[in-house]
Amino acid sequence: MKIMVNGEPREVPDGTSVAEAVASVTAAGSGVAAALNDEVVRRSAWDDTPLRESDRLEVLTAVQGG
């Protein structure tokens, strides 16, 4: 199925979870947030939140700097 991840089209298998999609974008273990169709998905729900055709996922990684 086709989804958008950080504004880029991506093909993923049916049943892909938010957790799997996030893992394909970043290996960061912490400091990561995900929004599905403009709504933040709590990290505890990533494994149980399936993606659907045409979903838009934004993956944000905190960056430290000064």
TrEMBL record:
Superkingdom field: Bacteria
Record CDD domains: Ubl_ThiS (cd00565)
UniProt-listed InterPro entries: Beta-grasp_dom_sf, Mopterin_synth/thiamin_S_b, Thi_S, ThiS/MoaD-like
Transmembrane segments: none
SUPFAM superfamilies assigned to the protein according to its UniProt record, in alphabetical order: MoaD/ThiS (SSF54285)
Alphabetized NCBIfam families for the sequence: thiS
Protein name in UniProt: Sulfur carrier protein ThiS
